Amino acid sequence: MPEAYYLTQWKEKAYTSLKSYYGKDNIDKNKCMKFLDKEISKYLNNRKITLVNNYTNVVAKSNILSLIDLIESHQLIIGGGGVLYQQHADKENPLIDFISYIMAERKRRKKERKQYDKTSEEWLMRDIAQLNLKIKINSFKTSLN
Hints:
Shape: elongated
Strand content: 5-15%
Order of helices and strands: HHEEHEEHH
Structural class: mainly alpha
Low-confidence stretches: none
Number of helices: 5
Helix content: 55-70%
Radius of gyration: 27 Å
Largest sheet: 2 strands, antiparallel
Mean pLDDT: 86
Strand order of the largest sheet: 1-2
Number of domains: 3
């Protein structure tokens, strides 16, 4: 199995740091990489994990290093509870049509209430309806940003 991209990058940075600390002529790269490989195998526990895609109901088995590589390569956003999200520019929010509908409906209700006196029951009912829609929209705001 090929080495995880994360580990390759980490080893290169560790080697560069050691080289700058001890002087570039004092450290043999091959010996340093073998030493780092030994330390990694001694201390790193690359545990197995299970990933669940709630949209497609697909379950995948993997390991921590592969997950780190996936997060890095796709620039995923990590949310609460370990939820992973794609960048909004890469994948459209699956709720965007619903959110757009609610926004248009709120706009319609606000326009509709204008034909009534602000003290009337009709105005109040339309105002309450548009405020309810506003609460729904605001609850989705983080999904749009």
